[in-house]
Amino acid sequence: MSLFSHVYLIFIAFQINAMERRGIEPYSDTLAALSEGHSNSLQLDLAEEFLERISEIKPKHIGSFNALLSGCAIMNEPERAVRILAKMKHVNMKPTLRTYELLFSLFGNVNVPYEQGDVLSHVDVSKRISIIEMDMFNNGIQHSFVSMKNLIRAFGAEGMIEEMLRYLNIAENTLWNINPHQKSDLYSTALHALVDVKETHRAVKMFKIMRSCSLPTNISIYNTMIECCKWLPCFKSASALLSLMLRDGFNPTVVTFTSLLKVVLENDNFEGALDLLDICKIEGLQPGIQTFNTVLLRAYARGQIHVLEYILECIHRSKIQPDPSTLWYTFCAYEEHELYNTAIESLLVLSMRMISEDAGIPSEKRIVFEDLILSEEPDAEFRIIRAFQAGEEFLATALLNLRWCATMGATVSWSPEESLWAMRLAASYDANKRPHINPSDAPKSWGRNPLNRPYWEANG
Question: Which InterPro entries does the annotation name (predicted)?
């Protein structure tokens, strides 16, 4: 929604409040339109409030309910969605196909994205989906492409692979009106889930079926299959996929390079990983924090402190703000090498950079932050969490880290570049440009079979 539309909605809401103060009741259609508008702009509290104020709900208002359910799906608020469904049942509002498509998206999984599925969650998911499907069929509504895609994604996210493949087969046999691009989209969703659970052979088989059926591919499918190669692990297969991708007219993206990084790092080839980062920049692509974190995670896992520090300086030179994963990998790497003071100092510097990569933080903000960091009140941590709205989790995380460092006796400085640790990383980067990699941790050869061929070969 544009800024103008957003301001216009606020203006209309103000006018309606003024009308109600004068005893003038707005039309139900007006309230429904306002609710739908606020849902589209993800102002769900206002959307729900206007929906509750409709005195006479009619079947034509289903669009407002669906818009609010869509907002709940985007903002991951299933609890609010339950209230909306209860409201629909109370006023005898008949669901539409769009309603069921949203319900599969909202209630199709229980653990994602915070946990992996387990036996109990699988049973719960199956019950939920069965109830939604039964209600849908009782209302004479059949599955659509979107509802099937949401179901396949839900089962895949929960790790329920057999159910996911069963619904993929049902979709192929029942959705006669879908076009090749939509069919490819369903396969792409399933491929992603198979790679996530390391079902390498099934993923390769599915990709071969797609090519043999001449289904259209896209950059996302190739990126998924390149990442699949890390479980083999075989860089030659990843290179073959990259060649196919280029032949099909797709140029590598940052995600492509991130997938390639995962493949080379699976063999602990840090030199190859750094080469890929250089090639990415030469191609005019700026790696994001997720790309750098991919290298940081492996460097931490393999005890390659020099590589980790080099990547941290690359992040800083690229003016990219670190995220909580960056801080976690760095702190744990130092802590496991018993470099406790360095761990705390790095946490201080990176937390400051997570607040602002720019050198200057306005003085008025510093005062507020210092009050939260140094407060001796017992509810100080709760105040930090409560002070920041959704979307500002990184800021709250940084302040909690700084508060912990202060509790440990460290001095919180608002000039992180003056840190001895930060200066050492900068000097080392300028002097060497490439980190020293311990020969004892040098990777082994990629030779995986006597024919020296890729693990799999794509048809065509």
Answer: PPR_rpt, TPR-like_helical_dom_sf
Structure tokens at 220: 């996302």
pTM: 0.80
* Closest CA relative to residue 262, chosen from 232, 290, 295: 295
pLDDT tens by residue, 81-127: 999 999 999 999 999 999 999 999 999 877 656 667 788 888 999 99
Beta strands in 282-339 (DSSP E): none
Residue 2, pLDDT above cutoff 90:
no
CB 144 within 8 A of CB 185: no
d(CA 331, CA 128) in angstroms, rounded, equals: 41
What CA–CA distance (Å, rounded) separates 126 from 163? 9
3-state secondary structure 365-394: HHHHHHHHHHCCCCCHHHHHHHHCCCCCHH
DSSP secondary structure of 182-194: HHHHHHHHHHHHH
Phi/psi at 192 (5° precision): -60, -45
Cα distances from 35 to residues 3, 42, 54, 62, 71, in angstroms, run: 17, 10, 10, 11, 11
Asked, as a colleague might, if the bond just before 113 is cis with ω within 30 of 0, I would say yes
Which 3 state secondary structure label does DSSP give 336? helix
**Model confidence pLDDT, tens digit, residues 296-354:** 999 999 999 999 999 999 999 999 999 999 999 999 999 999 999 999 999 999 999 99
HEC string of 221-287 equals HHHHHHHHHHHCCCHHHHHHHHHHHHHCCCCCCHHHHHHHHHHHHHCCCHHHHHHHHHHHHHCCCCC
* Neighbouring C-alpha atoms within 13 Å toward the C-beta of 187: 27
Q: What is the DSSP letter of 204?
A: H
**pLDDT of 429 over the 60 cut:** yes
Contact of 218 with 188, CB cutoff 8 Å: yes
Whole-number pLDDT of residue 323: 93
